Amino acid sequence: MLKTATLATTVALATFAFADAAEAALITLNGTDYEVSTVVGTYNDLSSTLEMTPWFGDSALATNAATQVGAAFGFPNDNVGPLFASGVGFPVFVEAAAFNGSTTIFSPTATINVFSETYAIATEVQTIPEPLTILGAGAAIAFGAGFKRKLGKVKQK
Question: Which top-rank group of organisms is this from (predicted)?
Fold first, then answer.
């Protein structure tokens, strides 16, 4: 049992040691957690990726996302944060929300295929057990196995 507990502790410590710090902003939209990161390019070059974001087609959701991210990525687009593209306006503008340091603005902000801009994209966060949860489960299994052996020895006597 001591070997099992030692192994579980070693695995838990190794998990903590190799965990990378998050380089993206975490937000919640409509009860779903997303990891937001950025890409740079023109709207036309990135359109297939930008149109897959959860806020595309919903200016209120784009504004909510931009507000949650705030200044996490700095201000790469002429003193505003990354653009949360939510649609294309007539004739050639990208409609987007962006944080400007004090509030979130929403407007036609970028020309579709002229300027390279920094855009926000999102990936849904999949829940993964934390290292402490894994350690607890390992300890419970080790304790259960040891208790079962001890109970088996008592029954044999």
Answer: Bacteria
- Six-digit token string for 11: 């695995």
Residue 122, helix vs strand vs coil: strand
Mean pLDDT of 27-42: 95
The pLDDT of residue 106 is above 60: yes
C-alpha of 130 from chain center: 15
Please give the angle made by the CA atoms of 30, 50 and 82, to the nearest 5 degrees.
80
Residues 6 or more apart whose Cβ sits within 8 Å of residue 77: 83, 98, 109, 110, 117, 118
Residue 34's contacts (CB-CB under 8 Å, 6 or more residues apart) are 26, 27, 28, 54, 65, 122, 123, 124, 125
pTM over 0.70: no
Please tell me the distance from the alpha carbon of residue 32 to that of residue 27, in angstroms, as a whole number.
8
Rounded CA-CA distance 63/80 in Å is 13
Beta strands in 4-157 (DSSP E): 25-29, 32-41, 84-89, 93-99, 104-111, 117-124
